[in-house]
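JOB MANIFEST
job_type = single_chain_structure
chain_count = 1
residues = 266
[input]
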Amino acid sequence: MAGAFNRKGSTVRLYRKRNEGGKGLIGIEDCVRLEEANLAQYVQNSEEWLLQEVREMGLVASVETGEELKKRRDAERKESLLGKPLHGKYFATVEKLADEGDVDLDRTWQWLKGGFLTKASEGYIMAAQEQALQTKWRKSTIEGSEDEDGLCRICGKWFETVKHLVSGCSELAKKQYRIRHDKVGSRIHWELCRKYGIECASKWYDHVPSSVCKSKDGLFELGALGTVPKRLLGFLKDLGIPDVIGCMQTCALLGTQRILKNALSI
């Protein structure tokens, strides 16, 4: 599938809506059951005498409408995904933060709804969120490899999980995390330069700021895997610059993909 889906990833996620973190595909069984439900509903409501005869004979019957079927299947898939200790951990964490008012779920999945990434990059990030990438921790813990100690191949201090590689490795923090952070922050810097008439490049991705400083309280930090904190939206509004969440999110995710690919290729 040209990298669009990791074979060790979540198949449940394939059939969830894109604005809920899924691929947005329609399952064959769902398609058939939905047509059956809609056909039964049409027969039940029809005033044509032939279809009334069919209804009275009980040849076509359905206990739920097409909309009810879709809602039930969506709810079942969400429950199934959240209940998975590996594939569903990221989703459970994001849902909890959203319930506490710290994360904007709608903007967190903007990169999927907008289709900002290639299918290969999209599939790679989704695999990272599902902890489906072949890290040393996965080999030693999930696959039970006796030849692996599970420790990070970069720092050798902590277990090599996806979470550790994207935001917790002390060695990667020296350069790779800073490059990713600066690339995201440069979009804000470019917008401010344009607003106040400061000389800058014509395109934001060509802009090289003299200094991009990290705010002390982390107001404009995006999650390494695309999570959008609600306070980021207020921060951009206070600065009076356009809504550039989608662009910043894309930069962060591509930076994360580059970090993971480089680290896992060692």
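[summary]
The two ends are 25 Å apart (CA to CA).
The longest helix spans residues 176-195.
exit_status = 0
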